[in-house]
Amino acid sequence: MDEDRSIPDEEWARFLREAQSGSEDAPVEPSARAREVARRLREEPGRSQAWRAHRPPVRRRSRAIWSVVGLLAAAALLVVALAPGHVAGWLRGGSGSGTAPLAAESERPEHAPASDMAAQLPTLEQPFRGSPAVRWADGTAGIHLPPARATGWMNREQVAQALTRSREFLEASSLDHGVLNGQRPTRAIAFINPHQQDVQDYLKAAFRTPGRTSDPLLLFSRFDRAKVRLAGDVVKTRGRITFREGKRGAVEVTADVTYVYPAVRAGGSDEVTRVIVRRETVMSWDNPAKVITERGTFSLVSYKEDSTNGGCSTFTGYFVPQFSADRTGPAPDDGPRTDPYDRSASMDTRMRAADGTDCGTASRS
């Protein structure tokens, strides 16, 4: 294809007219290959929803490693001379507020973040303290975009736009402050192909009657503002976007991102807890010559979600984090023990390991 040519408005309108007329070569209506949860429920009606929630672990105090920032070169040399052990700790990656940020995640990591970071409880001033997320980037800055190249029906510039708009969808669905405070994710929904009927049916049910098969949290992050509010304006993220040629020459974009939300009780509280959410969303930017679509929208291929401290088998349409007063004892060991910050395993691997269980135990929060 001509890499410098984009589809004119007249051609786009012709494709939609042909689709409505039912001509032999008309574009087909997209269908989600589908949410992981819905597929499993259809194939195995007796099985519960794919595991999406961990029970929070009992907090334990352990060795803390602090870091120092903003020092002049002479002062830094003095610290090295007086406390070489501390400097070695910083190089391993400490948990203080000045720890150097990690480079972007351009490929899957080989192992989980160091466990010696889980040393201190979060505070209102430092809501990510004691967490690997203290070194993660803020908001969309933590979502790596790959270089664009001509793929499928799109030229390089069109692929670059699809990648950018895919990240904009993630921002609108999982980082927008209005949505986080319980508002309907109108801007995010506008990215989804309105002709994808099964997904549109899911979206209507998710906000009208949220439940096991119509859970909005599969795609959107929401908290009940009357009960919970975010501790500050920062959400830490780590993940990446990849792409390949999909069916019918579509550009298939996969986003695998972990979000860390610090939360406090509404009405005044100093205790900070964290909700950790990992989502894998596969978006198909379809060729309008072959699939009925609208300009600037994608079709959902699949969407999976795995959350820590977001609520276990609760389907209110909101994350329901637990605080210390909610925990009367250690969580029962009724599922696999998982590190929510470990991104070395794929989402498929994580969900297979948790197959058949609604809840598990997080090794840290």
Notes on the structure:
The structure is a single chain. This protein is α/β, with parallel strands linked by helices and 365 residues long. It has one domain (29-60, 105-362). The chain is 24% helix and 18% strand. It is built from 9 helices and 10 strands. Strands 1, 2, 3, 4, 5, 6, 7, 8, 9 and 10 form a 10-stranded mixed β-sheet that branches. α9 (347-353) links the parallel β9 and β10. α3 crosses α4 (84-93). The longest helix is centred in the middle third of the chain and has 19 residues, at 156-174. The model is unreliable at 1-6 and 33-98 (pLDDT under 50).
List the helices and strands and how they pair.
Blueprint: H1 9-21, H2 36-43, E1 53-55, H3 73-82, H4 84-93, E2 137-138, E3 143-144, H5 156-174, H6 177-180, H7 186-189, H8 197-208, E4 228-230, E5 236-245, E6 251-265, E7 273-285, E8 299-308, E9 337-338, H9 347-353, E10 359-362
Parallel strand pairs: 1-8, 1-10, 3-5, 9-10
Antiparallel strand pairs: 2-5, 4-6, 5-6, 6-7, 7-8
Write a concise keyword list for the protein shown above:
365 residues; alpha/beta; single chain; 10 strands
- Uncertain runs are 1-6, 33-98
Count of individual domains: 1
The helicity comes to: 10-25%
Report the oligomer. single chain
Strands, total number: 10
Major sheet attributes: 10 strands, mixed
Through-space gap between termini? 49 Å
Please give the radius of gyration in angstroms. 22 Å
List the total number of helices.
Answer: 9
Order of helices and strands: HHEHHEEHHHHEEEEEEHE
